[in-house]
Amino acid sequence: MPSLTCGIDEAGRGPVIGPMVICLVSCSPGQLKELEALAVKDSKALSPSARETLFPEIKKVALVETRMITADELNRRMGGENLNTIEMKTMAELIDRVRVNGERAVYIDSPDPKPLRCASRVLSYCAGKNVKIIAAHKADAKYPVVSAASICAKVQRDSEIEKIKKEIGIDFNSGYPSDQMTIDFLTKHMDDANLRKYIRWKWKTLRNVRQKQKTLGEF
Fold first, then answer.
1. N or C: which end of the chain has fewer CB within 10 A?
2. Same domain, 188 and 122
């Protein structure tokens, strides 16, 4: 049995506004039983209030490590790295924060179409090698420790989005490309210098909005 069981998941991979948040939740064997007793599940299957309730309960029974990658950092790094690489390097960074004498079993929700390749790449980025990585699609629905990481990431991402809205004084709703309020916000405000640090300029959504503005300007 591993000394620690860890789960990693992200929130905010797809939005065009705001940070991507990646969380690692780690448990000893006894803590894992307590975590499972909380009946955690994939954050997408829970209401915001349920996630808010579970977040502090998870922190009582497990260690939670968080890495917030701002839109500004994503803009800089995506000049030379793709999103999968950034995410997998961050997973390794979080794993390296959790050191034990024994083995760490780490379950991750794979961003790569090939989970085995994902596991191999994350391991290659880790400084310590007493790590067993199990990567899977929909890991947040299969493993409670990943479900817990999903909840922690989602709550913190949502909190950051609310902070951004409060700071700029504009409600853009979710920040996702499929959200019409978000698209309307970008159409009106994407050239505001004070907002640039919150927008992911490498996203295709921005090119689409810019092209639409150009097309409308021709009429």
1. C
2. no
Which residues make Cβ contacts (< 8 Å) with residue 219, sequence separation at least 6? none
| 80 and 181 part of one domain | no
C-alpha to C-alpha distances, 74 to 70, 188, 198, nearest whole angstrom: 6, 22, 10
For residue 195, what are the domain limits?
169-217
- Pairing relationship of beta strands 63-69 and 20-27 according to DSSP bridges: antiparallel
- pTM value is 0.93
pLDDT attached to residue 218:
44
User: Domains in the chain: how many in total?
Assistant: 2
Does residue 206 register a pLDDT over 90? no
H or E element in which residue 135 lies: strand 131-136
Half-sphere exposure of 85 (CA within 13 A, CB side): 7
